[in-house]
Amino acid sequence: MKIAVLVSGSGTNLQTLIEQLHQDKTSGIQIAVVISDRRKAYALKRAKRASIPTHVVKTQDFENRVDFDAEISRFIEQYNVELVVLAGFMKLFQPPFVRKYQNRIINVHPTLLPAFPGAHPVADTLAYGVKIAGVTVHFVDEDVDTGPIIAQSAVPVLDTDDEESLHDRIQVEEHKLYPEVIKWYAQGRLKVEGRKVIVQ
Ligand code: GAR
Questions:
Q1: Pocket lining: 147 vs ligand 1, CB cutoff 6 Å
Q2: Minimum CA distance residue for ligand 1 atom 14
Q3: CA of 77 to the centre of ligand 1 (A)
Q4: What is the pLDDT of residues 71-108, one digit of tens each?
Q5: Whose alpha carbon is nearest atom 10 of ligand 1?
Q6: pLDDT score recorded for residue 35
Q7: Within 10 Å of residue 100's Cβ, how many Cβ atoms?
Q8: 22: how many CB neighbours lie within 10 A of its CB?
Q9: Which helix (H) or strand (E) holds 3?
Q10: Do residues 62 and 36 lie in contact, with contact meaning Cβ atoms separated by under 8 Å?
């Protein structure tokens, strides 16, 4: 199965997908293309090191967001991608794009959704004072971080935590959960029934 990985930042999730899926020939999963909305994203270097094609698609280069989405769609079609994997991609898609790829776009978010959606999830988690944090992998729908939840994993919040130490602990779980979920998808084990995702 060919996947596209969309990134904006450092790309530690991309790195685990490269090592645990792309470079493991038994996985049957190939990262066909990595797309970034930021030219300077370190994730692009990780992709190039693994000889994976990369493209930069910047919102500023387009008149509107529908055209931006269309350019990304063009690459998805060009590389025959079955699943679109958001890995720290910090742009939102417009409804037509989400509808076109319904149940074919997944995202990893560093909280236990529906708690703390949005752009500052780990800071919001700490500020609220919850004792349990975690990670969610979900299908993308037309709203922000609201799509059907595929899998979650929890970690404790310690009194001594700052944003970095908590995010690091959450990322350890992300790096285990995300490759696993992509394997389930590739094996055809995910069944979406309304808001519920059954893992068969
Ligand atoms: C990850 O922690 C991911 O959960 C988060 O961005 C980080 C990217 O890290 N995503 C979101 O907040 C999406 N709303 P990475 O670039 O090292 O993979």
A1: no
A2: 109
A3: 25
A4: 999 999 999 999 999 999 999 999 999 999 999 999 99
A5: 88
A6: 99
A7: 14
A8: 21
A9: strand 2-7
A10: no
Q: In Å, what is the CA distance from 127 to each residue of 109, 110, 114, 120, 131?
A: 17, 15, 16, 11, 11
First to last CA, the chain: 19
pLDDT tens track for 99-153: 999 999 999 999 999 999 999 999 999 999 999 999 999 999 999 999 999 999 9
Distance, CA 22 to ligand 1 centroid (Å)? 19
CA distance 169 to 27: 26
Please state, in angstroms and rounded to a whole number, the distance separating the CA atoms of residues 74 and 79: 9
If DSSP states are collapsed to H, E and C, what string results for 104-141? CEEEEECCCCCCCCCCCHHHHHHHHCCCEEEEEEEECC
* 109 assigned to active site: yes
* Under 8 Å between Cβ of 75 and 35: yes
Is the CB of 10 within 6 Å of ligand 1?
yes
pLDDT 10s digits, 18-71: 999 999 999 999 999 999 999 999 999 999 999 999 999 999 999 999 999 999
- List, in order, residues 6 or more apart from 181 with CB less than 8 Å away: 106, 137, 150, 151, 190
Question: Does ligand 1 come within 6 angstroms of the Cβ of 173?
Answer: no
Atom of ligand 1 nearest to the CA of 7: 16
How many whole angstroms from 49 Cα to the centroid of ligand 1? 20
Say how many Å lie between the CA of residue 101 and the centre of ligand 1.
21
